[in-house]
Amino acid sequence: MIKGFTSGVHWTDYLEEFELYEEITVNGQEYILVHAGLHNFAETKKLSDYQLYEVIWEPTDYDKVYFKDKILITGHTPVQLISKGKSEKILKMNNHTNCCSRATRTAWPTTPS
């Protein structure tokens, strides 16, 4: 059970409500939100063609620009591992933003009940 949820709701039910990705626009800037990255990225590949494993397991290549006009927001890999031990909690580079840090990863239990 997830704390704060109605009795009888299992954590897998909660996760099944999520989409593989989200596209949002804030103040005219377009963003794509995924858990880990866009594995097997190709400019011609539609976001709707990505499979589950391609967006939740394979990390983003932060040295590569995926979109010229959109910002890719990811998590999965702690920023400290990408930025070679620096203490930043948010990484911004090459139209990517990673918002996963070792501090934020402690918010969830390691073994959900």
UniProtKB/TrEMBL annotation:
InterPro entries: Metallo-depent_PP-like. It comes from Subdoligranulum variabile DSM 15176. This is Calcineurin-like phosphoesterase domain-containing protein.
